[in-house]
Amino acid sequence: MKYNLLATTEQLTISEATSELWMNLRAVGDEEAKVDRSRVKGLILGWSSLGPIEAIHSLRDYMEEEPDRFKNIYRIMPIISWVKTSIEDIVEEVNRQKEKVSDDETFRITVEKRRTNLGRLEIIEPVADIFDNDVDLEDPDWTVLINVLGNKTGVSVIRPEDKLNIQKEKYELSKKGH
Q: Hey, what domains does the chain have and what are their CATH numbers?
């Protein structure tokens, strides 16, 4: 898969949300942005030439200036790498990406799975086994984000601020008077 972003929305607003993601990526300077509906209800695939992390940080900054431009998208998540949906491939990719995690930093594993019979713990346990770090489910230094979409899985070892929860962050902005 060539995509490096996943966005969630309601199935009823998938057309609007797809356009919204594309227009907002263009607004933050990505002239080459691409977006497509996925085969999974309520899920949009995106590609940003800015890279997934930079795109999300730019979208967050833009949302703080123009919150009304974000009406239909719920969350945007980065995909650092795609692998075949197998425990071995997922563990191998997480192991490759975990180099950026220092020994004294905490982590959590978040699994989002669609169109698979794999259980969450089937994925979490072998991934957790490759870390010697402490787990912190509330305020981790790093998140191991695993998005299973049928026979492909997106793997991203990221900082918590590298994903965008639009509804939650817009609510926080409204409390600050934006």
A: 5-80+162-175 (no CATH), 81-158 (3.30.2130.30)
